[in-house]
Design brief:
This protein is of the alpha/beta class and 363 residues long. The protein folds into two domains: 144 residues, Nucleotidyltransferase, domain 5 (2-Layer Sandwich), CATH 3.30.420.40; 177 residues, Nucleotidyltransferase, domain 5, CATH 3.30.420. Helix content is 40%, strand content 17%. The protein contains eleven helices and eleven strands. The strands form two sheets. Strands 10-9-6-7-8-11 form a six-stranded mixed sheet, sandwiched between helices. Strands 3-2-1-4-5 form a five-stranded mixed sheet, sandwiched between helices. β7 and β8 form a beta hairpin. The protein is globular, with a radius of gyration of 21 Å. The N and C termini lie far apart (61 Å).
Length: 363
């Protein structure tokens, strides 16, 4: 007798998006519902954790109900509830974990705790279920800039990571300095389209270091000093050119490091996931470079780049098939580590005679 396909409800509340989705069978997306809090936090120029948690409390039940209604499945059809356990904001995570735990307990179905980064990684396979492994995965978002090698056995090796700011964080802070509002990444992307990326050249941090780590605090500081000098001289800010130049510097580093990892580890596939993977300039350069290098590229559709519950449900489906369930003692963990082992020192070490730059964070 053939078992019916699994039906997973995913919940995502790690930051300022309240999201729910239903995924079934072979990662078939039955529904996706999302409530954004951009209007709540925009006036503050960033996410206010307490306000985020309160809004999750107010909206999570309605968002879950909407996802179930659009999926046209009954509560009794669910096989498991997958919820983001961490990392993220403590209060925001607690709302999702508590709701998911209560729902799974009431329905007497398994509870699955999902690492938020595992969710982002899972998004690479949503539109390309045959995407090959081993492959290099670049996770790039507001809180993370990490390079992993995804092995064929489903495990991950950490190849490189940011030593200070994440790329998305640098975009957000640059947008704030330029008065472009929140969220900063999309604002920089939008304004940069009318600018000249070559008019103002910003440093390419850690590009020539010989390893696969990143550092973005220095470019942020360079922008701060550049704008300060303009203001002191009474020179109008060429905002579009600044945005384009700043974006180009970050994107170039991300692309070069990612393809260096592909070359160094001799794989033929690269996946780029996370909120910053929605950046139009990054997607253009990645696609061009992959085509010329003969590398297969996975870029999730825009709806799956930023925080969403489809990726959590997809990661939960994989855990369900492997029998990885959580206990009722599952707790939110704001600093939940990604389950990856360190790559060999040979693949990460710096060239002899070099030291890590110390970039003061002035914003």
């Amino acid at each position: 007798m053939v078992s019916p396909p699994a039906v997973i409800l995913g919940l995502e509340t790690s930051c300022d998006e309240t999201a729910a989705a239903v995924v079934r069978g072979d990662s078939e997306v039955a529904s996706s519902a999302l409530y954004s809090q951009h209007d709540v936090h925009g006036q503050f120029g960033g996410v206010v954790p307490e306000l985020a948690a309160r809004r999750h409390i107010e909206t999570v039940e309605a968002v879950v109900t909407e996802a179930m209604r659009h999926a046209k499945v009954a509560w009794s059809d669910l096989s498991a509830v997958a919820v983001t356990q961490g990392p993220g904001l403590a209060g925001a995570l607690l709302v999702g974990v508590s709701f998911g735990k209560a729902l799974a307990y009431a329905l007497r179905i398994p509870l699955i705790g999902v690492n938020h980064l595992e969710g982002h990684v899972a998004s690479a396979w949503l539109d390309q279920p045959d995407f090959p492994t081993p492959c290099v995965v670049l996770v790039v978002s507001g809180g993370h800039t990490h390079l992993y090698l995804a092995d064929s056995d489903g495990s991950y090796r950490l190849l490189g990571q940011t030593l200070d700011d994440a790329a998305g964080e640098a975009f957000d802070k640059a947008a704030k300095m330029l008065g472009l509002g929140y969220p900063g990444g999309p604002a920089i992307d939008r304004v940069a389209r009318s600018g000249d990326a070559g008019a103002i050249r910003f440093p390419r941090p850690y590009l020539k270091r010989g390893n696969l780590d990143f550092s973005f605090s220095g470019i942020k500081t360079a922008l701060l000093y550049y704008l300060r000098d303009l203001d002191r001289a009474g020179t109008p800010r060429p905002v579009a050119d600044v945005a384009a130049g700043f974006q180009e510097a970050i994107v170039e580093v991300l692309v070069e490091k990612a393809f260096e990892a592909v070359r160094r580890h001799r794989v033929g596939a690269l996946a780029v996931v996370g909120g910053v993977s929605a950046n139009s300039r990054l997607r253009t350069l990645l696609s061009s470079r992959a085509a010329s290098a003969g590398v297969r590229l996975a870029l999730p559709r825009l709806a799956y780049c930023t925080d969403n519950a489809v990726m959590i449900a997809a990661a939960g489906l994989r855990a369900y098939r492997q029998g990885r369930f959580a206990s009722w003692e599952l707790e939110a963990d704001p600093e939940l580590p990604f389950p990856a082992r360190q790559a060999s020192q040979a693949s990460r070490k710096r060239p002899a005679g070099t030291t890590r730059a110390k970039h003061p964070s002035l914003v």
